[in-house]
C-alpha cells in the first residue's frame, strides 16, 4: 500500500445530499445547527444547500434562508450546489463560498434526465457560465464526471467512454484558457466496484498522470468503503462524503437506506491506516447522531454506533 | 488486482451470529424457515445455532430443537458452533454436520473472558477434545484465531503476536499428527483496518506460504468490506459472513447496529469483480428482508435495499 496519500481532504455533502432527499420537513434552523456542528469537527469544506428548482426539490426551497443564517467560521468553506446559470446566480447572492465548476457525464441519458441536455448540449450551455465566471473573477474549483461507472438508464459505462468524455471536458476548459484543479469521478447511482474503480483510475492516470482526481462514492450496494480503499491505493486524496451516510435512495423506504459514503466511517478508516484527515472523529459521530435525530430514522453510518478505538487504547 | 481468487467460499453465520444477539424472542420455527431459505440460495455451509450455556445465551436454548427441525438439502452443510467438549457432545447428538476445530486468540484477556481460560490453558483443554475427535473419526475442519487484530480488553494486537500464536497452534495440532485444512482470522470486535489486514496476511504468508487462510470480519466501524477487499487482493477465498449483516453489537441499541460482514453485499462485490460466489444474489436479498422482519428492526445490509444491477443491465 505504498501509494497511500499522507492526508486526505474531505468535502462534506451531508446537509445538501441528505436533506435534499429526506421527505422532511426539517426546520431551516435545524439544518443550520447541523451545518454549524459539522464546522466544529475540523471539516474545512461543507456543501450546505442546493440552488435548484424548489418545485422539483421542495426540501431545498429554504436554500437562501439556510445559507444566510449560518454563522461562518473563517477556516471553513461553506458551499452550495448549482446545476445551471440561474443556480449560480442564486448562489452568488448568498454568503456562501461560490466558485465555478464544469460537468460532464458518462451517460447521455443521465445528463438528459438530470439537466435536460445531453453531454454535448450541456457543455455548450456551460460555456456561457464559464465565460461569466472568467469575466467576474470567479475561480474554477474543478470538474466532475457524473455516472462515471454505470447508470440505471444506460447500464455499464466503459472506462474508454469516460476517458473520451474527460478528454472532451479538458479541451473545453482549455478553450477558455483554464485548467482543472481537480476532477471528481462520481459513482452517482452506486454502480462502482473495486475492479471498475481500479480500471478507470488506471486508464485516467495512464493518459493524464498529472491530473488530480477525487472520488464521489455512493454506498447503494455496500461497496463504497472498498471502492474508497482502491482510491487510496491509487493515491487519491480527495473524497466527497456525507456525515452519517446521509443521502440515500428515495425509493428505498428510508430505513437505513444507503446514501453517500459515510464521512466519519471513511475518516476512521483513514486515521486507522495512518492517513491524516484533520477531523475529530468523536465530534463527527456526535453530528451523525444529531442527523439521525433530525431525519427521524436510522442512518447507515457505523462509527456513530461502534465508537472509535481511543477509549480501548488508553485503558 | 492479479491475486484475486477465481471463486470464494462463503460460510454463512447469520442464523447463529444474528439470533444469538437479538433480544428476541424469535420462534424456533421462524429460525428454521430462515435457515431453509438460506439453503435455497446456493450457500453450501450454514452455521445454524450455537451449543452454549442457555443460561448465558438464552436465545440459543432451542439449539437442539432448531437443529432437529431443519429439512436438510444434501448439498449443504448445516453446522453449529460449540466452544468446549460439552458443546461438541451436544452438537454430535443432532443431525448437524459436526467436525472438530481448534482455537487460539490474539488476546489472553479475551480468551479468559470468553472461555474462562487463557490461550495456554485453552489449548490444553482442547487437547482432550482433539483426542476425542481422532478416536471417533471426526475430521478437523480447521482453526480460528479470535481477536486477531485488536481486543477491547487488551487493545491493539500486533501481527507478531498473532504469528506466535499461530505457530503454537500449528505445533499443537501437529502434536496430534494432524494438519489444519484452513485457518480463519477473526476480527472479533471490529478492530481491523485495511492496513492491519495487509500486515497480518503478509506476515503469515511470509512464514507459511502454503497455509490456507480465511477471514471472519465484523463491520462494527464500517471497514469490513474494505478489509475483505484486502483479503481478496491477497487471494483469500474463504469468508465467514451473515445474511443482512445480522449479528451486531449488543450495546448498540439494535438500530441497524453493525454486525458481521453482510453476505449478500460481499457476494455482490465479488460477482461484480468477476469472482464467482455460487449464490443467487436476489434470493439472498429476499432472505435478508425476511431476517429484518424476524428481528423487527432495520439490519445493515445494503443490497437488500439497493438491489442488484441485473435489471438495469438487461433493459
Task: Explain the layout of strands and helices.
Two copies of one chain form a homodimer.
Chain A: E1 9-12, H1 14-21, H2 28-39, E2 45-51, H3 63-69, E3 77-82, H4 85-92, E4 100-105, H5 108-115, H6 119-135, E5 140-146, E6 150-151, E7 155-156, H7 159-174, E8 183-186, H8 194-207, E9 213-216, H9 224-233, E10 238-241, H10 263-272, H11 281-295, H12 303-306, H13 310-313
Parallel strand pairs in A: 1-10, 2-3, 4-5, 5-8, 8-9, 9-10
Antiparallel strand pairs in A: 6-7
Helix pairs in contact in A: 2-3, 2-11, 7-8, 8-9, 10-11
Structure description:
The structure is a homodimer of 315-residue chains. Chain A has 315 residues and is an alpha/beta fold. Chain A has one domain (9-313): TIM Barrel (Alpha-Beta Barrel). Helix content of chain A is 42%, strand content 15%. Chain A has helices at 14-21, 28-39, 63-69, 85-92, 108-115, 119-135, 159-174, 194-207, 224-233, 263-272, 281-295, 303-306, 310-313, and strands at residues 9-12, 45-51, 77-82, 100-105, 140-146, 150-151, 155-156, 183-186, 213-216, 238-241. In chain A, the strands form 3 sheets. Chain A has a 6-stranded parallel beta sheet with strand order 1-10-9-8-5-4. Chain A has a two-stranded parallel ribbon with strand order 2-3. Chain A has a two-stranded antiparallel sheet with strand order 6-7. In chain A, helix 8 (194-207) links the parallel strand 8 and strand 9 (213-216). The longest helix of chain A has 17 residues, at 119-135. Chain A starts with 8 loop residues before the first strand and ends with a helix.
